[in-house]
Design brief:
This protein is α/β, with parallel strands linked by helices. The chain is built from eleven helices and ten strands. The chain has a six-stranded parallel β-sheet, with helices on both faces. A four-stranded parallel β-sheet has the order 6-5-7-8. Helix 3 links the parallel strand 3 and strand 4. The chain is globular. The model has no long low-confidence stretch (mean pLDDT about 95).
């Protein structure tokens, strides 16, 4: 096995939410080493300009490249919508995957799809990134979007399956009632935490829930296998943040469902 096979996969997000991607990758690729970067000093990205988001994303990309990653996963919908091309250019020969493309490809691959629902943050919904990605592939698919910003703080509080969470989900998902959507894309990395509750609230068994975290993990596995870059030893997870490592660790253990080793504070400026 060459040295590059044991090189880590780099995953980054504006904060904590991308750990759902890290968890999905750890489950799909348990032998892979992972470096996760959460930009906790500058979260949220959704209220920043596209130029600022690109600047942040390229700083993080540079950090990951210096760590010797063999693949980069953009686990942030805002970055995926605003800076994917610039990251791909900066990464050179290192493959770059993003959650919007992964989620879109999974939704489109379903047979006889006519209507796709999307829930996401205000920034992701307003960017129209999912709508454009879907309709570039099939302009006949109807896309129905709904911003669901309150799900982010609920996820971080661990309020996943209580009355407040269910009422909030019911309010947001009401727009899809009677629309007979074939799939619902979870367009924010926090939302997979509600994956078991959403079908009950949506009350439509025919609708497939598209978890972009699972989608990008499967895509990463397929791509690493194609490139003959799979690792064979036991995988590790290293976490880096730009602020509040202790708070990150507390939330990370909730997201991952297990204890986390040290979280390293870094300054990208």
């Amino acid at each position: 096995m060459s040295k590059i096979n044991s090189a880590p996969i780099g995953i980054f997000d504006s904060g904590i939410g991308g750990l759902t991607v890290a968890k999905a990758v750890m489950e799909a690729l348990p032998n892979e080493n992972i470096i996760y970067f959460g930009d906790t000093a500058r979260v949220p990205y959704g209220i920043k300009s596209e130029e600022t988001v690109r600047m942040y994303a390229l700083q993080i990309t540079d950090f990951l490249l210096k760590k010797g990653v063999k693949m980069i996963l953009i686990a942030c919908n805002t970055v995926s919508a605003s800076a994917k091309k610039e990251i791909i250019d900066a990464a050179g020969e290192i493959p770059v995957l993003d959650v919007i493309t992964a989620g879109t490809d999974t939704a489109i691959s379903q047979k006889e799809h006519k209507r796709v629902g999307i829930i996401g943050t205000l920034a992701t919904i307003n960017s129209q990134a999912y709508v454009q990605a879907i309709q570039e592939i099939d302009p006949n698919i109807e896309v129905i979007q709904q911003a669901a910003p309150l799900l982010v703080p609920l996820a971080e509080e661990g309020w996943i399956d209580n009355e407040v969470a269910r009422q909030t989900l019911s309010f947001y998902l009401d727009v899809f009632k009677g629309k007979e959507i074939d799939s619902l894309i979870l367009g924010c990395t926090h939302y997979p935490l509600f994956k078991d509750v959403i079908p009950e609230v949506l009350n439509r068994s025919e609708t497939k829930i598209i978890d972009s975290a699972d989608s990008i993990a499967k895509t990463a596995k397929k791509e690493l296998k194609r490139l003959n870059l799979l690792n064979e030893s036991t995988g590790t997870l290293q976490c880096f943040v730009s602020d509040r490592p202790q708070r990150f660790q507390e939330l990370a253990e909730r997201f991952l469902g297990k204890e986390l080793q040290d979280v390293t504070l870094v300054d990208l400026n």
